[in-house]
Structures are given as structure tokens and as C-alpha cells.
Design a protein that fits this description.
single chain; mainly alpha; 66% helix; 5 helices; 174 residues; elongated
Length: 174
């Protein structure tokens, strides 16, 4: 769809019309607010009548004290409700975290050498360098004795007979 552009005079006329409507609405809202305020004050705060005598003054004071006590009781009850609600919310949050469990943060892969790890843990106290390869135990390779494998027939002939068996036992004892 092609959009038709408005002329600047049309835009200006629409803008002024919108501002005029908004202005009348604001004035009406202010008048309504003022009327609501006056109605509330007339309902909750009757006009003061100045007493002529001491008895009327004492009566007025008693009435004011009764109203103050009533308002204090309502305020205390509202405060108790708010604190109870806040306590319930905290308990429910605690239960939710118990049921849900603690979230484990995703761990990042960090490449640190042993020296860097110790320095991060101990701070500036770390003086000794950690060369792990130098601390490894050195293992010497044992050289196996090569038994000369000779002709098997000769070995069998040497062990043949009583003389050969005697040599076997003598070799085992030695």
C-alpha cells in the first residue's frame, strides 16, 4: 500500500486539535479532582464548631481522643497485616528455593598453571615456584639380563641322565 504524505498545514492543524482536546481533558480532570477532594473532606472532616463553654470543650476533646484511638487501632491492625504478609512472602520464597534447589552457575574453563593458581589463592605470599615435574620420583629402568639361548638340543643332552638332573638341583641351590 502506498502511504500518502500529509501536508505540513494538515499536520499542524491535527496537532493543534489534539492539544486542544488534551487541554480540555486536563482541565476537566483537575475540576473532578478538586470536587472529589472537597467531598472527601466534607464527609470525613466536619466543620469545626468552637465551643462556648468548658463543658463543650471537654466534650470535643473526648470525641477527638476517641477518633484518634480508633485511627491508631486501624493503623496498628493495618501494620500487623502488612508485617504478616511480608513474613508469609519470605516463607514462601524460602519454600520455593527449597523445592527448586539452588542454581549452579555455569563454570568457565580456565587455564592456569600451578604457579598462577597458587598466586591467585595465596596472593602476594606465594614465593615458591611450583615445578611439578621436578618433584616427581625418578625411576630407573632395570636392565634385564639376557639369557643366552643356545641350542636346545645341547641343553637337553646336558640334563639327560642322573648327572644332568644332579646339575639341575645344584643349579637351583646355588
Amino acid at each position: 500500500m502506498s502511504e500518502k504524505k500529509m501536508s505540513s498545514s494538515r499536520k499542524r492543524d491535527l496537532k493543534s486539535l489534539m492539544l486542544a482536546i488534551a487541554n480540555t481533558r486536563l482541565e476537566k480532570e483537575q475540576v473532578d479532582l478538586k470536587a472529589a477532594k472537597e467531598a472527601y473532606l466534607n464527609e470525613n472532616c466536619p466543620p469545626l464548631s468552637f465551643p462556648n463553654g468548658v463543658e463543650e470543650l471537654q466534650k470535643l476533646c473526648k470525641e477527638l481522643h476517641a477518633k484518634i484511638d480508633k485511627v491508631d487501632d486501624e493503623r496498628y491492625d493495618a501494620d500487623a497485616k502488612v508485617t504478616k504478609g511480608a513474613k508469609d512472602v519470605e516463607e514462601l520464597k524460602f519454600k520455593v528455593t527449597d523445592l527448586k534447589g539452588m542454581k549452579k552457575p555455569a563454570l568457565k574453563k580456565v587455564r592456569l598453571s600451578a604457579d598462577q593458581m597458587l598466586q591467585a589463592l595465596l596472593g602476594s605470599k606465594h614465593k615458591v615456584s611450583m615445578d611439578l615435574r621436578s618433584n616427581l620420583k625418578q625411576v630407573k629402568k632395570e636392565v634385564k639380563e639376557d639369557v643366552q639361548v643356545g641350542d636346545w638340543r645341547q641343553n637337553v643332552e646336558d640334563k639327560a641322565g642322573m648327572g644332568g638332573r644332579k646339575k639341575m638341583f645344584e643349579g637351583a641351590e646355588a
